[in-house]
């Protein structure tokens, strides 16, 4: 079984090499092949030069994609999804807030055939979590609650980065949101598709805004409208 690791990246030169090294080192029961698709979304800090170097060192493992201008996380993931060739995929942010050593736990329900997608929750489980912003936490909980009301799911962390999918399902779902709206959009669409969704606890080492955290309150406000919009309409499958 082949795993595709999808990494959208923008100005993360200090993290990307260590992250890719960790992802490549993972030994996951049931996975015998791994590809990493890195989509550089218009970085200007030297990140893309590092990505090119990593791809040159691991040409059989790493597929680089370069956007000429910054378009957002959703746009980068759309490019990655179009190019992935695995059986299972997992979304990996380019910083080290999320640890690739959690891959085996996240992917196990899909590998066993029990799940179609798995969310890695920062709010359940016994794994270590860095304590950070109260209002950011409260915003996440509110958006998850609102999303659950429209999807009839009982997720604890809709906004988590760690989402894993069967590739054949994800490839058939249209991605409309270019920025962080990807999270509520994809959640609404897999719910409408009646996918088997699991949730597992993960570790979390959150960053401060001084360390480069990018999502802000404006993205939270936009997420409210995205939850409502995709909760009402059914846009969960590519039209042919």
Question: Keyphrases for this structure?
Answer:
7-stranded mixed sheet; 240 residues; 8 helices; alpha/beta; 38% helix
Structural commentary:
With 240 residues, the chain is of the alpha/beta class. The chain has a single domain (2-232), classed as Alpha-Beta Complex (Spore Coat Polysaccharide Biosynthesis Protein SpsA, Chain A). It contains eight helices and seven strands. Strands 3-2-1-4-6-5-7 form a seven-stranded mixed β-sheet, sandwiched between helices. Helix 5 (134-151) packs parallel to helix 7, helix 5 runs parallel beside helix 8 and helix 7 (182-192) packs parallel to helix 8.
CATH class placement: Alpha Beta
> The CATH topology is what?
Spore Coat Polysaccharide Biosynthesis Protein SpsA, Chain A
The helix/strand class is alpha/beta
Name the strands of the widest sheet in spatial order: 3-2-1-4-6-5-7
Topology, number of strands: 7
Strand content: 15-25%
User: Given the structure, what is the number of helices?
Assistant: 8
The SSE string, one letter per element, is: EHEHEHEHEHEHHEH
- C-alpha end-to-end distance: 28 Å
State the shape: globular
CATH architecture: Alpha-Beta Complex
Short description:
With 240 residues, the chain is of the alpha/beta class. It has helices at 16-25, 47-57, 73-83, 103-111, 134-151, 167-170, 182-192, 217-232, and strands at residues 2-9, 33-41, 62-67, 88-91, 117-121, 163-166, 197-201.
């Amino acid at each position: 079984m082949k795993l595709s690791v999808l990494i959208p990246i923008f100005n993360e030169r200090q993290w990307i090499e260590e992250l890719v090294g960790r992802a490549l080192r993972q030994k996951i029961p049931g996975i015998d092949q791994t590809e990493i698709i890195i989509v550089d979304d218009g970085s200007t800090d030297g990140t893309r030069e590092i990505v090119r170097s990593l791809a040159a060192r691991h040409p059989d493992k790493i597929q680089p994609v370069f956007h000429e201008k910054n378009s957002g996380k959703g746009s980068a993931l759309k490019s990655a999804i179009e190019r992935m060739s695995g059986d299972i995929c997992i979304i990996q942010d380019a910083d080290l807030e999320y640890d690739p050593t959690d891959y085996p736990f996240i992917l196990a329900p899909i590998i066993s055939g029990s799940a179609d997608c798995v969310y890695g929750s920062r709010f359940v489980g016994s794994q270590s979590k860095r304590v950070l912003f109260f209002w950011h936490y409260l915003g996440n909980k509110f958006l998850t609650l609102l999303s659950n009301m429209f999807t009839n799911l009982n997720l604890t962390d809709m906004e988590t980065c760690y989402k894993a999918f069967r590739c054949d399902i994800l490839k058939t779902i249209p991605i409309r949101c270019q920025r962080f709206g990807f999270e509520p959009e994809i959640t609404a669409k897999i719910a409408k598709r009646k996918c088997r969704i699991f949730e597992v606890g993960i570790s979390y080492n959150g960053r401060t805004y001084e360390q480069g955290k990018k999502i802000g309150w404006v993205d939270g406000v936009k997420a409210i409208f995205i939850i409502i919009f995709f909760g009402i309409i059914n846009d969960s499958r590519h039209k042919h």
